[in-house]
Amino acid sequence: MTPWVRRLLIANVAVFALTMGLPYLGYLLAFQPVSVLARPWTALTYMFVHAGFWHILFNMISLYFFGPRVEERLGSTRFLLFYTISGLGGAALTFLTPMATIVGASAATFGVQLAFARYWPRVQILIWGVVPIEARWLVVIMTFLSLRGGLSGGSGIAHWAHLGGYIAAGIFLLVMDRTSSARSFKQKARAPVASLSPLADRAQLARWSKIRAEDLHEVNRAELERIRGVLATGGAGKLSEGDREFLERFSRSS
């Protein structure tokens, strides 16, 4: 369990308990687009309010399953920002149905789900603990179902918020990739060999070698072993942009 996933789980459960005893508090924290000027805080607080036991259960299972690996990959500070922006994206797209009132962490957890599929697209997810599906196809199916549900309307499910979570998460990851230090590594790799600094290369390799595999989640540990295999057989020149970004992220954490 990573730090912010644990805190978010506790916060969601605590708010759920409070709103069960004080239903009017749930109303004050819920988000409704037409009321956003009167209650601007609800664009954030709605993420911690849930309509019932099954609602919070499924959202927290999703956060518990996908969240730790994503937080470990992004770093705790960036993960919290990512989670929040995904939730805000859900609120923003709900303006397509301005009279709707929405609650729940679904938009934020959908964003986390998208990040998981972005980094580990072929990992098998067991739906209901029985039906296996790769993470990337789960996102595709959920996008289709949310889009169909949003266009049809009347289901009582915040489909536009789910899509907003995906969209905001996708934009966040795209911007992060474009501003990542890995891009400079890629440019360096394309530069003439004479312009590369052997000292800088050795410093990178030394920093990367300090990453402790035993401190990583098993999925990230397997990725580290794969990348180290690439380094052993082809050297740093064979690393992809994503490989370098991975090594830099975890070398800063080690």
Overall description:
With 254 residues, the protein is mostly helical. The chain folds into two domains: 3-178, Rhomboid-like fold (Up-down Bundle); 182-253. It is 68% helix and 3% strand. The protein has twelve helices and two strands; from the N terminus they run ααααααββαααααα. The chain has helices at 3-21, 23-29, 42-45, 53-74, 76-93, 106-119, 135-152, 159-178, 182-190, 198-209, 218-234, 241-253; strands at 124-127, 131-134. It has a two-stranded antiparallel ribbon with strand order 1-2. A hairpin with a 3-residue loop joins β1 (124-127) and β2. The longest helix has 22 residues, at 53-74. The chain is elongated, with a radius of gyration of 21 Å. Mean pLDDT is 87; it is low at 188-196.
What can be said about this structure in brief?
The protein is mainly alpha-helical and 254 residues long. It contains twelve helices and two strands.
State the order of secondary-structure elements, H for helix, E for strand. HHHHHHEEHHHHHH
The end-to-end distance, rounded to whole angstroms, is 17 Å
In the CATH hierarchy, the architecture of the largest domain is Up-down Bundle
**CATH superfamily placement of the largest domain:** Rhomboid-like
Report the radius of gyration as a whole number of Å.
21 Å
Described by the principal axes of the CA atoms, the overall outline is elongated
Mean pLDDT, all residues? 87
CATH class of the largest domain equals Mainly Alpha
Strand content: under 5%
Helix content: 55-70%
Which strands sit side by side, in order, in the main sheet? 1-2
* Spans where pLDDT lies below 50 across 5 or more residues: 188-196
Number of helices: 12
The CATH topology name of the largest domain reads Rhomboid-like fold
